[in-house]
Amino acid sequence: MSIPHQLERADLLCKQRGVRFTPTRRNVFMLIAEYQGAVSAYDLLDRLKEREPNATPPTVYRALDFLLKQGFVHKVESLNAFLFCEHFDEHHPMQLLICNSCGLVIELHDEAINRAFEQQAEANGFTITNQSIEAHGQCHSCAE
């Protein structure tokens, strides 16, 4: 799906949710959408400064917090990086495969994994409030 179409979908969702999709939030959204794979906040800051010369780390972190809350991006905890989510208009389980060689991040949506994880948590008297399942290894291209 094209970035302008993704931006249009995000704009509509923000209007429906009654939240402000400010120019800075839109710029960070577009930068992440253009990026292939996971990107760090400081790499985003460098790119954002091309559009907004006065941007600072708090500027990017506030925008990222907003994008995370809206489900537009995922945080790759083990890399301290962010990944654009193309399925942001629906709640979905997520698992990430991360290549240690090239940095490729593959987002999976396996309901069975999510259900099994939630059942194990419940069986242990645990309530999940935030879930991140990440696996590191080597992608097919790097394994050759």
UniProtKB/TrEMBL annotation:
One of the protein's GO biological processes: negative regulation of DNA-templated transcription
Record-listed Zn(2+) binding positions: 99, 102, 139, 142
Cofactor binding summary note: Binds 1 zinc ion per subunit. Binds 1 Mn(2+) or Fe(2+) ion per subunit.
Record bears the keyword Cytoplasm: yes
Residues that bind Fe cation: 91
Keyword Metal-binding: yes
Source superkingdom: Bacteria
Cofactor: Zn(2+); Mn(2+); Fe(2+)
Keywords, in A-Z order: Cytoplasm, DNA-binding, Iron, Metal-binding, Repressor, Transcription, Transcription regulation, Zinc
GO terms for cellular component: cytosol
Single GO term (MF): DNA-binding transcription factor activity
Location of the protein in the cell: Cytoplasm
InterPro entries on file: FUR, Fur_C, WH-like_DNA-bd_sf, WH_DNA-bd_sf
Known partners and oligomeric status: Homodimer.
Family to which the UniProt record says this protein belongs: Belongs to the Fur family.
Protein name: Ferric uptake regulation protein
Gene encoding the protein: fur
